[in-house]
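Appendix B, example 12.
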Amino acid sequence: MNDQRCRPAPVPAQRESFDDVVLPHLDAARRLARWLVRNEDDADDVLQEASLRAFRYFRTFSGGDGRAWFLSIVRNTCHAWRGRPFATATDPFDEERHSGVRSESDPEALLLHGDEVALVERAMSHVPDRVRHLLVLREVEGLSYRELAATMQLPMGTVMSRLSRAREAFRGAMTSTLAEYGIPRGHIFASARRSLR
């Protein structure tokens, strides 16, 4: 008797669920949206819109890197969001400032960390949009060059050269920001990457 005729037919692999592909990357998507639209409330709206788009078109996901697929949707949603005909000025609600609950951390450490984050954010605001996206995805979200190429829909060599230009633009913007506030350059560069997260 032939061994191959007796074997059961292979069962097709289970297709990944939306929850398995998208939900693990919501935090990364929110951080990316926040960096791209520069507003907490708008970032939440962008994330919601991107999640709806991902859900609506999940049937087109052909497998592979779900993180790159979802972050591409978030990035494209941010571009569409910024092209809206109106921009609303909002003052985000600060839970910590408006509540009676205080942080358990050392106030001086919190103040210094907040200052570093503000300096990094100010410098990042001077980096051109087209390279800021790459810098955030690589340095904040930790995407590999391959994931960056898939997310940005660019060849790997282009990603590498643009990332180099993005880092140079950030260094220049950070140097200018530090000089503007009279802060020695070595003070912040050691902790700049940590502050982005």
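The CA atoms of residues 113 and 129 lie 25 Å apart. The longest helix spans residues 156-181.
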